[in-house]
Design a protein that fits this description.
Helix content is 67%, strand content 0%. The chain starts with 10 loop residues before the first helix and ends in a 10-residue tail after the last helix.
Length: 93
């Protein structure tokens, strides 16, 4: 079982159960915790339709790219190629 747990959730469960947990971790004071949420953000976004990504995750995407920690920004930059693919490509204009 190499896949992240959220890949096994339905879209409804991602929104109702996964997103609240993700958002809490994404806002943690420790950058080491926020650093681990970058890959989760990509997994969640790939499981949701673009309209849901825009509604539910656009703020978190922007916050990740503008994070106060260079480590979080660096992790976002290293994963930027995934961010440039669907469903993210609509938001990069």
């Amino acid at each position: 079982m190499d896949q992240p747990l959220l890949t096994h959730f339905s879209q409804a469960h991602i929104i109702s159960d996964g997103l609240p947990i993700y958002r809490k971790l994404h806002q943690d004071d420790q950058d080491s915790v926020r650093l681990l949420t970058v890959e989760d953000l990509i997994v969640i976004a790939k499981r949701l339709p673009p309209a849901e990504v825009k509604e539910q995750l656009l703020r978190q995407i922007k916050q990740t790219i503008e994070d106060k920690s260079w480590r979080v920004r660096y992790m976002a930059a290293t994963h930027f190629n995934e961010v440039g693919k669907p469903p993210f490509h609509h938001f990069l204009r």
